[in-house]
Design a protein that fits this description.
- This protein has 366 residues and is mainly β.
- It has a single domain, classed as Methylamine Dehydrogenase, Chain H (7 Propeller), CATH 2.130.10.10.
- The protein is built from 1 helix and 29 strands.
- Strands 8, 9, 10, 11, 12 and 13 form a 6-stranded antiparallel β-sheet that branches. Strands 3-2-1-29 form a 4-stranded antiparallel β-sheet, with no helix packed on it.
- β15 (176-180) and β16 form a beta hairpin.
- The longest helix is centred in the first third of the chain and has 23 residues, at 3-25.
- The relative contact order is 0.13.
Length: 366
């Protein structure tokens, strides 16, 4: 081999390795969901292709999902709210399992699942009931903290009191976990100390009814926020006489700073089950049910609304803010342009099984 040929060969190998490394760095967003019969699915969002189909070998519903911060493990509530499973998204291997019920005590976590920013702790709110021969004994709710490295026989490291009616949760960068209950409560994960972050059922807003909040789909990680939709009636007087309007609003927690916000953004014209804000333009809010709506929360204007081919329960958004994904209910994930709300693609579950109320999570590309 001549010196010139060796140089050319080395240069070619270097270019090839650079291209491979660049391709790895340029990996696009992935979508993670669960579909019947009992499969965790991973899609390449840009190519609209299924890249992983992981049989869970357990009753997979309701399929509330949280993803580890490094994007490698998906945790889900399974077995009718009772258990937590962790799946490696490359190998489909089960790497974590927590059986929350034991003895005569049955424990259910109603959409309550979160992972710490370093990926080492997992949180649930468990609702225990003692099953006795002649009656059910309702016990106090529990905030349970697990070590994600405890494998397939995980038990809580710490257990603290928790608020009733807890649903979705999110962990911030300061060691707190925000829980949607009657109000949005902030729990210090290390000590269990709890106080109210956002008054919700207990808010003091003259002329407003108590809000109605459907907190079931834990989305919003692209914005580093914990966000909930609410609706409420607005009255003409503080005596709650004569309804003047029904409004949509949102409440949010910045998971870096802890800053909270609560604001109306439009009239209640259509039902929305879930919503997400654009990570590149936080004033843009997208909501979904039988229509896909785009709102400007700063001007409180409806930008556009389009009808959908059927109902979708959950919405999420690409990390570059250019596409929204609507899922749940049936077997298809619809892809829409955030600019025009035009349907520009779709992905389907391989079995044809529906996603029911499963979460759709987006893992940002690298």
């Amino acid at each position: 081999m001549t010196p010139l040929f060796r140089k050319l060969t080395a240069a070619g190998v270097a270019v090839g390795l650079t291209l491979v490394a660049g391709a790895a760095r340029a990996e696009g967003d992935r979508l993670v969901t669960i579909a019947k019969p009992a499969n965790l699915l991973v899609f390449d969002a840009a190519r609209r292709e299924l890249v992983r189909d992981c049989p869970l070998e357990v009753n997979a519903m309701p399929g509330v999902i949280q993803v580890s911060p490094d994007g490698k493990i998906a945790y889900a509530l399974v077995n009718r709210w009772e258990d937590v499973i962790g799946i490696d998204l490359e190998s489909c291997e089960r790497v974590f399992y927590a059986r929350q019920s034991s003895g005569d005590v049955r424990r259910k976590s109603i959409a309550s699942l979160a992972v710490s920013p370093d990926g080492r702790e997992l949180y649930t709110v468990r609702n225990p009931t003692r099953i006795l021969p002649d009656r059910y004994e309702v016990l106090a709710p529990e905030f349970a903290v697990y070590d994600t490295r405890d494998g397939l026989q995980a038990e809580p490291m710490r257990v603290y009191p928790a608020p009733r009616r807890s649903t979705v949760m999110a962990a911030d960068r300061k060691g707190n976990v925000y829980v949607a209950a009657h109000d949005v409560e902030r729990i210090e994960a290390l000590t269990g100390y709890m106080h109210t972050a956002i008054p919700n059922a207990s808010w003091k807003r003259p002329k407003y009814s108590p809000p109605d909040v459907l907190a079931f789909w834990p989305v919003g990680s692209q914005n580093d926020e914990f966000m909930l939709l609410y609706s409420a009636a607005v009255f003409e007087t503080e005596k709650m006489e004569n309804i003047s309007d029904f409004v949509w609003g949102y409440q949010t927690v910045d998971l870096t700073t802890g800053e909270t916000q609560l604001s109306d953004f439009g009239s209640f014209e259509v039902i929305m089950f879930s919503a997400v804000r654009n990570p590149q333009a936080p004033n843009e809010l997208y909501g979904v049910y039988t229509q896909l709506s785009k709102h400007d929360v700063q001007t409180r204007e409806l930008v556009k609304r389009v009808d959908l081919p059927h109902t979708y329960y959950v919405i999420n958004i690409s990390s570059d803010g250019k596409e929204v994904y609507v899922a749940g209910t049936n077997d298809d994930i619809g892809v829409y342009s955030t600019e025009t709300l035009e349907r520009i693609g779709e992905m389907r579950t391989p079995s044809g099984g529906d996603m029911a109320a499963a979460t759709l999570q987006v893992i940002p590309g690298r």
